[in-house]
Amino acid sequence: MVGFGMVFPLLPFYAQAFNATPFQIGLLAASFSIVQFFTSPILGRISDKVGRKPVLVWGLLGGTISMGIMGLAQSLPLLFLARALHGAVSAAVLPAGRAYIADVTSPKDRVAGMGRVGASFALGFLFGPAFGSFLVGFGGIHVPFFVAATISALNAFSVILFLSESLREKAEKIVIREGLFNVFNIFKHLKSEPGILFSVLFAWSFGLSNNQVAFPLLMGEKFHLGAAQIGYFFTAIALVSSSVQGYFLPKIVKFMGEKKTIFAGMSIMGGALLLLPFAPEVLLVTILFMFMGLGSALNRPTAEGVISRISETGQGTTLGVANSFESLGRVAGPLLGGVLYGVAHFLPFFVSASILWLIAFLTLWSLRIPRTP
Question: Could you give the CA distance from residue 60 to residue 66 in angstroms, rounded to a whole number?
Fold first, then answer.
C-alpha cells in the first residue's frame, strides 16, 4: 500500500501529460478495477486450492512489472495497459491477504483481525502519498512508479523468505466458472444478508474512488494545488483510518454492535463528501478528509469481518467476491467522477454521498447478523 499510495494521487496528472480528457482520466483509474472485478473471485478461488503464499508472491511480482511499465510509459495506451495489468495482479494480493487473516483468526476475533490488516493498509497509505509527493518534487513524476516497483519486489521476496502458509484444508479443485458465476449470482441476491454487505463495500469504494479523479481536479482549479500537494490530503485519511482500525475499532464494535458501526461509518463518509466541494479553505478540506478516514475505518473492516464470519464457502472465494464489489465501486466512481465533474464540480461528491447514505439506511433496516458462538 505504500507503493500503491505513492502513485494513486499522481495518475490524473500523469495522464494529463498525454493530453487525456477528464473522461479518459476516469477510464484510466477505472481500468484497474474493471480487470480486478473479474479476476478477484478466480484468484481467490485459486488461493483456496494452492494456498495463500504462492498467490501473494505471484501478485507482488506482477505488481513490480506493472509499476515499472507505468514509469516507462511514453503514451496513453501503454499507461492504460500497465494500469490494467496492475489491477489483475492486485486481485491476487488483496483477497489472498484477507483470506490469510481469516485463516489465522477465530470467528469472534474476525472483525478485529480485519481491522488490523485495514490499519496496515492505512499505514501504507499514510506514508505512500506523502512519499510520492516528495519524490515528484525530487526527481519528477516518473520516479514514484520506479520506487513502487522496487518496494513490491522486496515485499515479494519477504513473503518467500518469512511467511508461512496459513491454509490447512485446501479445496479439492479449481473451478474457474464457479468464481465468475458467484459474482453474478450475488447480483441476484443483494437483498440477502451477504448481499447488503457487498453493497456496503461497493458504496465505500465508490465514495472514495471518485476522489481519484474529481478531487485533484477540484483542488487544482480551486486552490491551484498540484501533484506534489494532493498526496498529503490522502495522508490525512490514512492517519485517522490507521489509528481507528488499529486500536479503537474493536472497542467501538463492542459498544455499538457491528450493524450500527457500519451505519455510522457510512453516514460520516457521506457527510464529509457532501461538504467537500464547498469548503472555502484548505484547512477545512483537510478536516473533512480526516472525517472520511474515520468513516472508512468504521465501515469497511467491520463489513469484511461479518462477511468472512457468515461465509459458507472458502474464505478466498468469498473475500475474492467481496473484493470484486469493491472493484465495481472503483470502476463506477472514477468513470462517473470524470463525467459528473464536467457537468458540475460538486456533482461527483453529491452522488457519492447519496449512495453512501442510501446503502447505510438499507443496511440498518435489513442486515441480520447471527450471534458469535
Answer: 10
Distance CA 148, CA 145 (A): 5
**Does the pLDDT of residue 155 top 70, yes or no?**
yes
**Residue 196, amino acid:** I
User: What global pTM score does this model have?
Assistant: 0.72
Output the CA–CA distances (angstroms, integers) from residue 31 to 1, 22, 26, 38, 97, in the order listed.
Answer: 18, 14, 9, 12, 22
pLDDT in tens, 289-348: 899 989 999 998 898 888 877 765 566 667 777 777 887 887 888 778 878 888 888 899
Q: Cα–Cα distance between 153 and 133 in angstroms, integer?
A: 21
Average pLDDT score over the chain: 83
Q: What are phi and psi of 169, to 5 degrees?
A: -115, 105
Buried b (16+ CB within 10 A) or exposed e, 19-30: ebebbbbbbbbb
Going through 40-175 in order, the beta strands assigned E by DSSP cover none
**What pLDDT shows up at residue 313?**
57
pLDDT of residue 315: 65
CB-based contact 259:369 (threshold 8 Å)? yes
The pLDDT tens digits for 195-225 are 788 889 999 999 988 777 788 888 888 888 8
Q: Domains, the chain, ranges and CATH?
A: 2-163+176-366 (1.20.1250.20)
Separation of alpha carbons 72 and 54, rounded Å: 28
CA distance 118 to 125: 10
Q: How far is CA 105 from CA 115, 305, 309, 325, in A?
A: 12, 10, 10, 23
Cα distances from 185 to residues 38, 76, 180, 321, 328, in angstroms, run 13, 35, 9, 10, 15
| Count of helices and strands (H, E) across the chain | 15, 0
